[in-house]
């Protein structure tokens, strides 16, 4: 049902448009001054594969969390708002199964969102710029085939990074019958977590924020790959999924559904 909605496809198209706009801006101008703008932006004109990487850096702070907030905040509250939740609960399936299916839908959107940015970046980059070996942060270079693999790994990393936010959105969605409120609250928490992550006075809190490893995919642009960030990120997001999944079940299992 998630991918049969026009809103879902509109959000995926909007995400895919970000790398396109980046590529067009570089193509139609003389290019950004060296050292300014997002990471790797000054390399786009020489190698189109960098468009996908720059697109990820641009989307991960705001655009990706915003769309995931919409998808996850609508999971339960959307059904309640449309008056269809009680009909779902009449089916011979437990509330736990309904929550699980709803979360799987939100997680699938996380994967689709990350892939939309990556695929759009690769396609528009190859269409507008030359492509060749990619120079990594470590100074090593990768051939074209290996570069595609690294971009795929970056998309996987970003998708995993959004899983914790999706679980938070699922929990908030069980607290209200107003889907817009759940979406907005989830998006605000995403922004708030990023702001808290920038305050040095809260260093003790940073490792526990679901946004802490969002930019850790830069470690995938080294040779050899530093898998520490990927593992720590997956562990952190898994913790959020377990905790907020349990909270969502605790709330939803005892909730009186009137709509």
Largest sheet, if any? 2 strands, antiparallel
Mean pLDDT: 90
Question: Which H/E pattern describes the elements?
Answer: HHHHHHEEHHHH
Low-confidence stretches: none
Share of helical residues = 55-70%
What's the total helix number? 10
The total count of strands amounts to: 2
Strand content: under 5%
Radius of gyration: 20 Å
Query: If strands are numbered along the chain, what order do they take across the biggest sheet?
Result: 1-2
How far apart the termini lie comes to 20 Å
The structural class is mainly alpha
Indicate the overall shape: globular
Give a quick precis of the structure:
By secondary structure, the protein is an all-alpha fold.
How would you summarize the topology of this molecule?
Layout (H helix, E strand, L loop, with lengths): L5 H22 L22 H10 L3 H11 L3 H5 L3 H6 L4 H34 L5 E2 L5 E2 L1 H18 L1 H11 L5 H18 L31 H26 L6
Antiparallel strand pairs: 1-2
Helix pairs in contact: 1-2, 1-3, 1-6, 2-6, 3-6, 3-8, 3-9, 6-7, 6-8, 8-9, 8-10
């Amino acid at each position: 049902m998630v991918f049969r909605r026009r809103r879902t496809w509109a959000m995926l198209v909007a995400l895919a448009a970000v790398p396109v706009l980046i590529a067009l801006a570089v193509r139609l101008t003389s290019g950004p001054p060296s050292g300014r703008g997002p990471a790797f932006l000054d390399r786009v004109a020489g190698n189109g594969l960098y468009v996908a990487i720059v697109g990820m850096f641009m989307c991960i702070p705001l655009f990706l969390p915003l769309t995931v907030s919409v998808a996850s905040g609508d999971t339960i509250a959307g059904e309640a708002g449309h008056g269809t939740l009680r009909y779902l609960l009449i089916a011979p399936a437990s509330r736990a199964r309904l929550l699980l299916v709803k979360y799987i839908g939100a997680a699938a959107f996380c994967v689709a969102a990350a892939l939309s940015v990556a695929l759009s970046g690769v396609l528009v980059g190859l269409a507008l710029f030359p492509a060749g070996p990619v120079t990594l942060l470590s100074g090593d270079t990768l051939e074209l085939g290996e570069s595609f693999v690294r971009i795929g790994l970056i998309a996987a990393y970003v998708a995993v990074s959004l899983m914790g936010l999706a679980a938070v959105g699922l929990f908030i969605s069980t607290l209200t019958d107003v889907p817009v409120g759940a979406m907005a609250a989830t998006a605000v928490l995403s922004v708030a977590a990023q702001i808290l992550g920038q305050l040095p006075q809260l260093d003790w809190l940073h490792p526990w924020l679901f946004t802490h490893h969002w930019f850790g995919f830069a470690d995938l642009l080294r040779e050899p790959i530093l898998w520490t960030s990927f593992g720590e990120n997956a562990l952190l997001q898994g913790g959020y999924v377990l905790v907020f999944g349990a909270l969502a079940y605790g709330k939803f299992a005892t909730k009186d559904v009137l709509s």
